[in-house]
């Protein structure tokens, strides 16, 4: 393991200018130490974890302390200054011992993890899409900043962490770019903002972060946890009650002249999306927020025909104008968001269904929380076209709505995962499930049934197994589920329905 750490550190240092070596050495070793912690002591009681960690770093200190090459001394120095309290003492002793006899130590090695945080600023986009926390580190040889970008459109997660130029150059770049507000904050306040956002990031199974985030997060956490002041937790974000949301809708309707009949419903969906899935509140005006709502969230949340979706751009544009006036946002930012509606309108047109539930034109079916993870429903699929419409005759409203969601989604998922030839069978099984065994639906989440149908078809057609194109694990990964869940749900199908061979 130590040889791997040495090799990793050498490669990381070789990729950057010499002026950055102290920072990159700290970041490289902090990342490696974090990965080791995940692998070697990820679980167990705190005492057990601490014992394993102390044993490991004591052994590492002994080995590195006996060596005399410069590379191992650089690694030992970095470890002694970045590893947590449980393993730090033996590494520091080994480092002091080697320092007495080590020949020709470069000056930059003495500056590893020795930077002092002097100030912090927060730069926020006027549209509320995100904010950057800039930590200023003063050093005669290499003053630098650590910049943390927090994405409000993804629930205020940390999306990027990188080392930037000195703070005066960062401020100059922000001011030159415009459309940002800048404020100075206490380091402890900055630390609280960042640590809370990192907690949000860890709640993601696969957060959409940059490569720099992966590299510099260990350095960032080490530096924040070594601050003399305790981090100050940001204020709890205020919640918007259903009554307050309805009040906003009423105020909007009173301010507008002529709007489509579905305006109240559409703007309430906008408010719910902005409040429940992003940070910044319902009155935020942003071209990115328009994209998320029109191209991603609304088509996955609402099943409707073109009559309903044709009304959405008109209502959203009116809402953006209303919100821009309420917040006194610059006109160019409002215009940019309104123009984005036209850009993303085709996403709604592609999502429109023909009579999705056999109801009158303009009606829609809203997928409630129990079905909100049907993430790919009704998205256009190259080579497959639009899904067929199920026969809803003889079904009550609840069954009709369920079938309208389930059958086309199983059709799309089978076509995308297994191939177009398997889509019709998936559609038929879904239709039989709703018609012949409606009580069975309660035994799994609605979103699980299309996946189980695809799993069943893959096994019935012998597409899974040794020498076949798929493995159970790969198929389960493609279906965003676990083999155990899929196997159990598919068995419910075969035990209940008489399916053709």
Automatic annotation (TrEMBL):
This is Uncharacterized protein. It comes from Kribbella jiaozuonensis. The lineage of its organism: Bacteria, Bacillati, Actinomycetota, Actinomycetes, Propionibacteriales.
